[in-house]
């Protein structure tokens, strides 16, 4: 490999760079005309330049996501208090950042369920980040209260399928349907532990640069937004291969 430092060291110590030459107005006009002619002759130059810029930004975004995941892997993948569903002994953990009032999260719910059905070694950890108003906060509290009674998965499923707003009456009805103790459910919804977990989830999402819901983290990959099943499976396969 060519060593830049060695090449610089070999230059004579007394050698000083010549002052930069300034183009004359005529030279600048000629350069501009050359560029214009090149673009007229081959307009794909612009498209190629834009594509290269977009690819560079994509690579930079991917690198930022990987660094953020590595820095927060413990809180992201290995918090024993997080609610989850899927594999009891996971090969791969997929973390889902969600809001129960988010239409895209609701649309992705059957997609994630199909992922678990097709990939039995996958565990889905759910990080509630209620960003769509007070009703979102109430729904997230209810889900964590259901988790406290060991009934997160059925409650999560019922809440994602709920038609209408997740108000307190609807949440109490869902709690009864999935077999929760209603008195404990109401108490746990307002607990300090639930508050602490929601605050931690929001801080983690911010640290990862997550701008909205849904968002998924698996292996070294951060996937923002609603994504196709096959994209999730590709990310799971990459995480499994990297173990």
What does this structure look like?
The chain is of the alpha+beta class and 243 residues long. It has eleven helices and five strands. The chain has helices spanning 4-9, 25-41, 44-71, 73-77, 103-118, 134-148, 152-161, 168-177, 182-189, 192-207, 229-241; strands at residues 84-86, 92-98, 122-128, 215-218, 221-224. The chain has a five-stranded mixed sheet, with helices on both faces. A hairpin with a 2-residue loop joins strand 4 and strand 5 (221-224). Helix 6 (134-148) runs antiparallel to helix 7 and helix 6 (134-148) packs across helix 9 (182-189). The longest helix has 28 residues, at 44-71. It is elongated. The two termini are 32 Å apart. Residues 1-17 have low confidence and may be disordered.
Describe the secondary-structure layout:
Elements: H1 4-9, H2 25-41, H3 44-71, H4 73-77, E1 84-86, E2 92-98, H5 103-118, E3 122-128, H6 134-148, H7 152-161, H8 168-177, H9 182-189, H10 192-207, E4 215-218, E5 221-224, H11 229-241
Parallel strand pairs: 2-3
Antiparallel strand pairs: 1-3, 2-4, 4-5
Helix pairs in contact: 6-7, 6-9
